[in-house]
């Protein structure tokens, strides 16, 4: 470990600082719900109770997995489409000039409008739901990747030209490593945005998933169920972050921290 | 093997103009000239990196295997030295051999940024050699190296050229001393747009010194 890293660690606040605000919110929530004694604000224990009940009946897993399936499918479609578009726009000023106005339009199109239009045009079907999410997410990915494509190092481009890299080599060996931070940024933002849109899509036109459950609970003002499902899905997203995204990021940025620099 | 017919029309910004010459196998050319005059531009044009310069201005470049030692190492920082060299189309074992030839045996698993400037430049030279170049382009290969390292690299390049008599070289440099050790032919580039003001063998006595004088004279200082 270099001394620079050590200095950085020393500058960090102790770990317990991270455990102040969230537990306080929990305590505050418990306190208010105890004072109000209203079904409109169930206590944390009530929510936990609902969560256990839904889990043991199997409903929770059914709806969580339905939502997760949609999130994953929409995510991969949006990422690959958005990355392709962003790369093309970042590399070619003509393509950028052609599609930039459309991109601006789509960026400002409310998610709700896309969802409604897709359901109206395609019917209340799964493909309409996925399409709506993808259309919402693609412009964000494209904008992020376009930035990355614009900042590709021209010196390495020249090197790849001189040494006659194949298209695939240039893409895989020269572009992807440089685009990786942008891909990760798009992934992070994408996951958070996509799962929120998926819930709306489910609420408006699907009969499974967390969004569908929220709608049922909303109709009978069942706040405990709303909170239980929301928290369960937040946990799932955090799990994805910890188990997949962070290790991936660590692995791919390993070359940035040479362990023993030879000066 | 390579014919240059560059006119001012070949560039949107006419940096270079009036360059008409031929590079033959075995030529060891040192390209001298004040800084900013377009020496690197000329190398880039020869290497095919300048999209504006047409094939009719540099005849024969497509058929040539060109090894280009850039001013920066331009190795992929996320790949080990071996992997970097493999990318030009050699086996891992051959890559190790090329590293050994430039004195980097055992460094194959290092990342480029873990190396000193001199070592990284030698690794980049190993990659140049791995494509078995017919033409070697060197852009200030000794810049910012300490004298010992610069001398080692110079000896290495001379050894490589001696071992491959058919290999041609064009080496950009500021230093007439480099030209004396490396070259059998000199190019002197100057003017606006830059032209080859001198193109000839190094044998002429005192030529290197007089060129150095021109480079160092006060109105040329930059």
Question: Tags for this entry?
Answer:
heterodimer, A: 263 residues, mainly alpha, MetI-like fold, 11 helices, disordered N terminus, B: 222 residues, alpha/beta, Rossmann fold, three-stranded antiparallel sheet, 7 helices, 33% helix
Task: Describe, in plain words, how this protein is organized in 3D.
The complex is a heterodimer of chains A (263) and B (222). With 263 residues, chain A is an all-alpha fold. Chain A has one domain: MetI-like fold (Orthogonal Bundle). In chain A, 81% of the residues lie in helices and 0% in strands. Chain A has 11 helices and no strands. In chain A, helix 4 crosses helix 10 (210-219) and helix 5 crosses helix 7. Chain A starts with a helix and ends in an 11-residue tail after the last helix. Chain B is an alpha/beta fold and 222 residues long. Chain B has a domain at 1-64 and 135-142 and 167-222: P-loop containing nucleotide triphosphate hydrolases (Rossmann fold), CATH 3.40.50.300. Chain B is 33% helix and 20% strand. Chain B contains 7 helices and 9 strands, in the order E-E-E-H-E-E-H-H-H-E-H-E-H-E-E-H. In chain B, the strands form 2 sheets. Chain B has a 6-stranded mixed sheet, sandwiched between helices. In chain B, strands 2-1-4 form a 3-stranded antiparallel sheet, with no helix packed on it. In chain B, strand 8 and strand 9 form a beta hairpin. In chain B, helix 3 packs across helix 4 (117-130) and helix 6 (176-182) runs antiparallel to helix 7 (207-216). Chain B is globular. The N and C termini of chain B lie far apart (35 Å). Classes of the chains: A mainly alpha (263), B alpha/beta (222). Chains A and B meet through helix 8 and helix 9 of A and loops of B.
């Amino acid at each position: 470990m270099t001394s620079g890293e050590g200095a950085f660690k020393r500058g960090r606040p102790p770990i317990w600082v991270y455990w102040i605000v969230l537990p306080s919110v929990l305590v505050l929530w418990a306190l208010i719900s105890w004072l109000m004694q209203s079904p409109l604000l169930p206590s944390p224990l009530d929510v936990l109770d609902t969560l256990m009940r839904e889990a043991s009946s199997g409903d929770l897993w059914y709806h969580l997995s339905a939502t997760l399936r949609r999130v994953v499918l929409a995510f991969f479609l949006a990422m690959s489409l958005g990355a392709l578009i962003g790369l093309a726009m970042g590399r070619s000023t003509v393509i950028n000039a052609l599609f930039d106005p459309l991109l601006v339009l789509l960026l400002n199109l409310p998610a709700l409008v896309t969802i409604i239009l897709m359901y109206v045009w395609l019917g209340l079907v799964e493909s309409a739901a996925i399409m709506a999410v993808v259309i919402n997410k693609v412009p964000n990915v494209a904008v992020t990747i376009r930035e990355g494509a614009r900042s590709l190092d021209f010196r390495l481009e020249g090197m790849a030209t001189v040494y006659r890299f194949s298209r695939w080599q240039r893409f895989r060996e020269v572009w992807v490593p440089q685009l990786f931070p942008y891909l990760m940024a798009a992934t992070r933002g994408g996951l958070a945005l996509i799962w929120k849109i998926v819930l709306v899509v489910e609420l408006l036109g699907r009969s499974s998933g967390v969004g569908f459950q929220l709608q049922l609970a909303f109709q009978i003002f069942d706040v405990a169920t709303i909170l239980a499902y929301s928290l369960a899905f937040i946990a799932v997203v955090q799990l994805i972050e910890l188990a997949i995204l962070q290790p991936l990021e660590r692995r791919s940025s390993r070359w940035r921290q040479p362990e023993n620099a030879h000066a | 093997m390579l014919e240059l017919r560059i006119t001012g029309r070949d560039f949107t910004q006419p940096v270079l103009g009036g360059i008409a010459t031929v590079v033959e196998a075995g030529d060891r050319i040192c390209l001298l000239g004040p800084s900013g005059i377009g020496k690197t531009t000329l190398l880039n044009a020869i290497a095919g990196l300048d999209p504006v310069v047409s094939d009719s201005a540099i005849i024969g470049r497509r058929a040539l295997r060109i090894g280009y030692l850039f001013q920066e190492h331009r190795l992929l920082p996320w790949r080990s030295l071996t992997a970097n060299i493999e990318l030009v189309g050699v086996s891992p074992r051959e890559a190790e051999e090329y590293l050994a030839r430039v004195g980097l045996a055992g460094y194959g698993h290092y990342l480029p940024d873990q190396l000193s400037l001199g070592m990284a430049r030698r690794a980049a030279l190993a990659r140049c050699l791995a494509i078995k170049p017919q033409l070697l382009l060197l852009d200030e290969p000794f810049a910012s190296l300490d004298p010992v390292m610069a001398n080692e690299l110079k000896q290495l390049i001379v050894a490589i050229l001696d071992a491959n008599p058919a290999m041609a070289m064009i080496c950009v440099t500021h230093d007439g001393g480099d030209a004396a050790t490396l070259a059998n032919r000199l190019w002197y580039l100057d003017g606006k747009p830059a032209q080859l003001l001198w193109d000839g063998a190094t044998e002429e006595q005192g030529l290197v010194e007089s060129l150095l004088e021109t480079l160092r004279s006060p109105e040329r200082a930059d």
